[in-house]
Amino acid sequence: MITTTHDRDRRSMAELLAPFLTPLDVGTLHSRNRFALAPMTRLKAVQGVPTDVDVDYYRRRAAGGAGIVITEGVLVPDAAAGFSPRIPVFMPEAEAGWRKTIDAVHAEGSAIVAQLWHTGISRGVDSRHNPGVPPKSPSGRSLAGDIVSEPMTEADFAAVVEAYATAAELAQAWGFDGVEIHGAHGYLLDQFLWSRTNTRVDAYGRSAAAGTSLPAEVVAEIRRRVGPEFTIVYRFSQWKADHYRARLAETPAELEAILAPLVTAGVSMLHPSTRRHWLPEFPGESTLGLAGWTKRITGLPVIAVGSVGIEAAYGAEPVPESDTVYDRLATLSAQFEHGDFDVIAIGRAMLADAAWVEKTISGRLDEIRPYRKIPETEHLDYDRFY
What is the full DSSP assignment across 74-140? Predict the structure, then answer.
């Protein structure tokens, strides 16, 4: 059971979170509130095709209060994009499943955004999915910095841009309200932004426009294909998978150098992924988090994320007992009212309890099923959650 500080907290929760219940319009994305389901890989697809299990998973989160549903990463149509046939893929065979999902989410009054994903070097060199297909990465370097494959070629760049643009066109045609480009967590587009994985010295090198040449080309081509109104979200991060202290920008100026080309290329909204939304990103500059700095630098709508509604931050030590759920939500509310972000994405809390938003708004915190990380040695029946 999640605890609160006093009984009064339950009574004041609706007032505390009332600002999050206002609608938001960004291009073709129309949300009834400011809560979003964060994208989380689920590995439930069958040969790249979503099933009724996926339909129910997304429908329940929409019914539970998420005004925006962001799908798990859906692979762009490139043989080197993923590492498992359980990951959905943008391909003709998947259309019926996604249309059913979209209809189910829309029927609950929510918007749905498809996340476009290419894992790059994180696919691994011995992937069981499409074996024999080498991974793609800027310099052939793993996240540890080791050379494990060949660097991408001009033909590879063109193929990747085409794959993203094709996926976006399909998403638009199938009825999604927008797309989110996954440029975070050490996956392909993020690998161009990190000095450890990008040691190129050409126009796609880390020194050229902060490494945003290919990400900006992807955004620009998607914008050209889908038109001026269709919503394009770009997700980025400082941290990488298993490299939580990694940083792309040490100063606001460096962050601006990364984001400016993406804004120019045509993104509608930005989604900076952090592990703790309440921590300042550049402590010597201000108390603003990464979302706040992103909003200040670009002026675009921003989605914030980072351990909302759970008792431990991602990959971190438990939150101190004195830091209650109410205190954390009060901090979140203050950030929102300060204008640091426009939407808050909820990940693990909504993974554990599909109705987290509705229960939290109504002050029923004691009814929320808390998230807990399952030890690798403990069998988990995922269908209990999905």
Answer: EE-S-TTS-S-TTS-B-SGGGHHHHHHHHHHHHHTT-EEEEEEE--GGGG-TT-SSSTTPPP--SSS
pLDDT per residue as tens digits for the range 103-149 = 999 999 999 999 999 999 999 888 888 989 999 999 999 999 999 99
Domain CATH for 119? 3.20.20.70
239-258 exposure pattern, b = at least 16 Cβ within 10 A, e = fewer: bbbeeeebebbeebeebbbb
Q: Based on the residue annotation, tell me whether 234 is a catalytic residue of this protein.
A: no
pTM: 0.92
Domain range for residue 120? Answer: 7-384
Q: Strand runs (DSSP E) across the chain, as ranges?
A: 24-26, 29-31, 35-37, 68-75, 111-117, 178-185, 231-240, 269-273, 303-304, 343-346
Which one from 187, 204, 326, 371 is the annotated catalytic residue?
187
Separation in Å, CA 333 to CA 16, 247, 300: 7, 27, 19
